[in-house]
């Protein structure tokens, strides 16, 4: 089979000085095959955001290796950054710029040809055309979430890293965004890593799930695998069992199913 699009080996990140370090991510490994949607789940402080930041090259790991689209992110991330993107409603765009100005600036940063045409295209696709001329600081939380996703899709990324992509959206709009992401993946073959606290969203979108607690991947598998292993009816109950370190029926951590699928 082809090499994985995302490959993480023994990744560790510590903060602080040598005398009293804080380990945010502790020796994690996983691989994501092309075209897969993988959920990265865990409670606050589990290490999800730190992991995503290292995948993007925003944080340097203390140790370990990251390969994205076949390239070593610690040495050659400039080779693949234009083929990736990231969205989070918790990372603000410049408030004084309008939506159109923000998207145009990012379009130029990404080196997109025909930026004006692409901005209009993605604005229509994500239903943000009606507030293109509005300053981002005047948008509602849900509108900001939608604009953040539009920014992330400007360059038609092959790898899309999403942090709570439907946060602050009403149920109808959130469902529409999930459908759009499914269609985008089916149309382009993009690989998506999704951090979310919405377990219904994860069950719908993700073929594979990585469960983190305390900076460690403590379990992994398909949503159906996890439901069966923990003897639960919903992924939310599985999430609570793992977050509170309660194992149903003495279940043991699964084998590296994500890695197995990519090897």
UniProtKB/TrEMBL annotation:
Keywords: ATP-binding, Nodulation, Nucleotide-binding, Transport
InterPro entries: AAA+_ATPase, ABC_transporter-like_ATP-bd, ABC_transporter-like_CS, ABC_transporter_ATP-binding, P-loop_NTPase
ABC transporter domain residues: 6-239
Gene Ontology MF terms in the entry: ATP binding; ATP hydrolysis activity
Entries under PROSITE patterns matching the protein: ABC_TRANSPORTER_1, ABC_TRANSPORTER_2
Keyword rRNA processing: no
Superkingdom assignment: Bacteria
PANTHER family in the cross-refs: ABC TRANSPORTER ATP-BINDING PROTEIN (PTHR42711), ABC TRANSPORTER ATP-BINDING PROTEIN NATA (PTHR42711:SF5)
Family according to the record: Belongs to the ABC transporter superfamily.
Protein name: ABC transporter
Naturally occurring in which organism (per UniProt): Skermanella stibiiresistens SB22
Upper classification of the organism: Bacteria, Pseudomonadati, Pseudomonadota, Alphaproteobacteria, Rhodospirillales
